[in-house]
Amino acid sequence: MIVLTTIQVLILTLGIGLLVCVLLLIIRKYSIQFGFVAIPENRSSHKKSTPNFGGIVFYILLIASILFLHKFETTTNLAVLVAAFSAILYTGIKDDLRDSSPRAKALGQCIAVALLLSVPEFRIESLHGFLGIGQLPLFIGVPLSLSLYISLINAYNLIDGIDGLAAIIGFVASASFAFLLYQMAMPFYFGLSIAMCSILLAFLGFNFSKRKKIFMGDTGSLLVGLFLGMLAMKLLSVSPEAAALTGISLTEMPLLLLTVLIVPAFDVCRVIFIRYWQKQPFFTADRNHTHHVLIDSGKSHKKAAITLGLVNSAIIGLMYGTLQAYGLLAAGVLLLVLILWGSLSLFVISKKISSKRMKVKIRHMLFKIVYLKCTNTPEK
Question: What's the angle, vertex CA 55, arms to CA 53 and CA 59, rounded to 5?
Answer without folding.
Answer: 130
